[in-house]
């Protein structure tokens, strides 16, 4: 073997054995040359081969970092829901989880190690500078022009070249999804969703009197385009609702080729595609994945893609500030916003505009992405150690949650009730479907640091499971 191959193999073994964890920084080229008495060309060649294999990544002005996630747990298989339209009825458990403010936290105690001081300063400055007319009059239906101008750039990061007039501000991503469903469907219509899928979307479908067709999905690559095509051939689907980038609960991210295929399908049938892109900014890599909306523009915009997002998952749950690119449904969405919200808070919009304008969001994202990558890796390591009976675990490359699959006899709803008595909140898999499925699965979040209290909570869940 050549020297660069020896070095490549040495680093590869350290990564695959877990000695070099996901997100950890590799020695600099100069340091490695001195440490192992190698030439610069040898080290660069080894790093280039590791980068080509997807094991490491180069970050400008920062060096090389491990980008490969190791886990002893296998990836769960593609889901197999019944693909037939059905009305939805969700469980009381979801209400209980939300009342505990524990949608993504196993041990909700209200304690955080840090808070976003720059965001707080911007919101306070907006409050101090607010004029009387802004307090006494409603905002325009589309939302604050200055904020929409800033969102143009955020959309460009996902590949969408839009103008401020293309954007409508909403009361959060859930509100955007509701506006999109109301604009594209009528009660009794059928909507295709991924399975397992976001319970918030299922709630909306239930509340609007719609039926859902659950489409098989992979925990790695998201919804199956072949299965979606089959569903569209068999049922009168009026809209498709997907989270292509780091979908909850699995953290799946659709490859670009799948996004383009799904877009071609909806364009061929003139069906609306509602894209939930709330997690796109939370990639563990340097470049956030493209939206399906961006490919619609590339193909000569059909206006059939309604892109929905917000800052609630990336920045603050409490902002309740989102947006929608409604395409051909823009006028209808603006009218529906007047009915469902009337207007958005000008103070919050001004504060967020200032935060974006200052560059603070980009700085925040760089740090947040690294934190999430490390916390995800820590969680995977914990799950592999604490749940040896687990049959599968998703391996997200972004987002804030993953999907744990346990043996088929496990009832995670019963486990929820046991854990709840101990002040521990888990999210049963049955919440992510309208069918009798995923009872043996859990969605586990990694948005918060793995403090001793949270690790202890996960250990208690493992003990409860082992005692069954």
How would you describe this protein?
With about 475 residues, the protein is of the alpha/beta class. About 45% of the residues lie in helices and about 15% in strands. The protein is built from 17 helices and 14 strands. The strands form three sheets. The chain has an eight-stranded mixed sheet, with helices on both faces. Strands 11-12-14-13 form a four-stranded antiparallel sheet, covered by helices on one side. Strand 8 (about 270-275), helix 12 (about 290-300) and strand 9 (about 305-310) form a beta-alpha-beta unit. Helix 1 packs across helix 3, helix 2 packs across helix 3 (about 40-50) and helix 5 (about 115-130) packs across helix 14. About 45% of the residues are buried.
TL;DR of this structure?
The chain is of the alpha/beta class. It has 17 helices and 14 strands.
Please specify the SSE layout and strand pairing.
Blueprint: H1 3-16, H2 29-36, H3 40-52, E1 56-59, E2 63-66, H4 92-99, H5 117-129, H6 132-136, H7 145-157, E3 168-170, H8 173-184, E4 190-195, H9 199-207, E5 211-218, E6 222-223, H10 225-234, E7 237-242, H11 256-269, E8 272-276, H12 292-298, E9 305-310, E10 322-325, H13 330-340, H14 346-357, H15 360-386, E11 392-393, E12 401-405, H16 412-420, E13 427-428, E14 441-445, H17 452-466
Parallel strand pairs: 4-5, 4-7, 7-8, 8-9
Antiparallel strand pairs: 1-2, 3-10, 5-6, 9-10, 11-12, 12-14, 13-14
What distinguishing features does this structure have?
468 residues, four-stranded antiparallel sheet, 43% helix, alpha/beta, globular
| Number of E-type strands | 14
Shape: globular
How many helices in DSSP terms?
Answer: 17
Major sheet strand order: 3-10-9-8-7-4-5-6
Q: Structural class of the helices, strands and pairings? A: alpha/beta
User: What is the percent of helical residues?
Assistant: 40-55%
What radius of gyration results from the CA coordinates?
A: 23 Å
Distance between the termini: 52 Å
Uncertain ranges: none
How many strands, which pairing sense, and closed or not: the largest β-sheet?
8 strands, mixed
Strand content: 5-15%
The overall pLDDT, averaged over residues, is 88
